[in-house]
């Protein structure tokens, strides 16, 4: 279990996160909040890149005191290495850690993502959606038990984004892991997550923690979720206004 206990972060004198208490266990959790609220900062605190000004983060009871290996992180930009092929990018974790590359696993993952024909392509030869898929597969190859995804589809057009969301929903069981995903997209949060955390305007506090329990997670079900969408929209709207007035 990952636990934040009374976590506050101040950067350059600016309070960014205020007294955040949170437990993350299994499932897919989405984090939404107004732009600039501190969502990426929260991921960096979990990763150990930014130390809390006060409070504590623990992973399986152990305090996080610096960069550690509990998380597989996918940044906003795909950050593929342009001089490596698709397959080499996916296997980056093994390469960096001087481990043998699980070629069979890479081949299987490429097939799962519909990228079998692109294994020897260079990143510059891929569309935006393909790059994000490759970046996600690279995250999957990281053996860490918990995934942190920062706006993974933020830069994509609506259709590409939609097809990647469908792909994530349909991921085989063995590729699923506990995940915390930052997103600006309310429908994306509802579609993908079992739990939605809503952060306030800066400094970020937890203002809602909502369980999502679909009967059948598909787009027909998503279309019935207008009341939840409206509830989340109203919360974000209020907080965005607060941020604008700050
Ligand atoms: N190293 C830093 N020093 C000072 N301020 C910072 C630093 N990093 C981020 N900030 C500020 O912290 C606030 C939160 O930034 P953060 O990137 O966490 O927000 P966010 O919710 O992820 O934003 P967005 O939704 O726009 O991606 C912003 O006002 C930002 O300017």
TrEMBL record:
<dbReference type="InterPro" id="IPR050166">
    <property type="entry name" value="ABC_transporter_ATP-bind"/>
</dbReference>
<dbReference type="GO" id="GO:0016887">
    <property type="term" value="F:ATP hydrolysis activity"/>
</dbReference>
<protein>
    <submittedName>
        <fullName>ABC-type nitrate sulfonate bicarbonate transport system, ATPase component</fullName>
    </submittedName>
</protein>
<dbReference type="GO" id="GO:0005524">
    <property type="term" value="F:ATP binding"/>
</dbReference>
<keyword id="KW-0067">ATP-binding</keyword>
<dbReference type="InterPro" id="IPR003439">
    <property type="entry name" value="ABC_transporter-like_ATP-bd"/>
</dbReference>
<keyword id="KW-0813">Transport</keyword>
<dbReference type="Pfam" id="PF00005">
    <property type="entry name" value="ABC_tran"/>
</dbReference>
<feature type="domain" description="ABC transporter">
    <location>
        <begin position="2"/>
        <end position="226"/>
    </location>
</feature>
<dbReference type="InterPro" id="IPR003593">
    <property type="entry name" value="AAA+_ATPase"/>
</dbReference>
<dbReference type="InterPro" id="IPR017871">
    <property type="entry name" value="ABC_transporter-like_CS"/>
</dbReference>
<dbReference type="InterPro" id="IPR027417">
    <property type="entry name" value="P-loop_NTPase"/>
</dbReference>
<keyword id="KW-0547">Nucleotide-binding</keyword>
């Amino acid at each position: 279990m990952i636990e934040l206990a009374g976590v506050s972060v101040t950067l350059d004198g600016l309070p960014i996160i205020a007294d955040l208490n949170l437990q993350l266990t299994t499932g897919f959790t989405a984090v939404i909040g107004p732009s600039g609220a501190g969502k990426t900062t929260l991921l960096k605190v979990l990763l150990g890149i930014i130390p809390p000004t006060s409070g504590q983060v623990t992973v399986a009871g152990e305090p996080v005191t610096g960069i550690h290996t509990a998380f597989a992180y996918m940044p906003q930009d795909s950050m593929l290495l342009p001089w490596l092929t698709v397959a080499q990018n996916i296997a980056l974790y093994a390469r960096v850690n001087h481990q043998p590359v699980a070629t069979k696993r890479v081949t299987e993952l490429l097939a799962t993502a519909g990228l079998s024909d692109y294994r020897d392509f260079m990143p510059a030869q891929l569309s935006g959606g393909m790059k994000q898929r490759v970046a996600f597969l690279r995250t999957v190859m990281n053996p860490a038990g918990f995934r942190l995804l920062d706006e993974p589809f933020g830069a994509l057009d609506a259709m590409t984004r939609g097809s990647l969301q469908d792909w994530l929903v349909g991921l085989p069981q063995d590729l699923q892991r506990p995940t915390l995903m930052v997103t600006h997209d309310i429908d994306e949060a509802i579609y993908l997550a079992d739990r939605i955390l809503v952060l306030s305007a800066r400094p970020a506090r937890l203002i809602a923690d909502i369980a999502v329990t679909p009967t059948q997670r598909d787009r027909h079900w998503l279309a019935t979720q207008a009341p939840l969408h409206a509830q989340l929209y109203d919360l974000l709207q209020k907080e965005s206004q607060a941020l604008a007035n700050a």
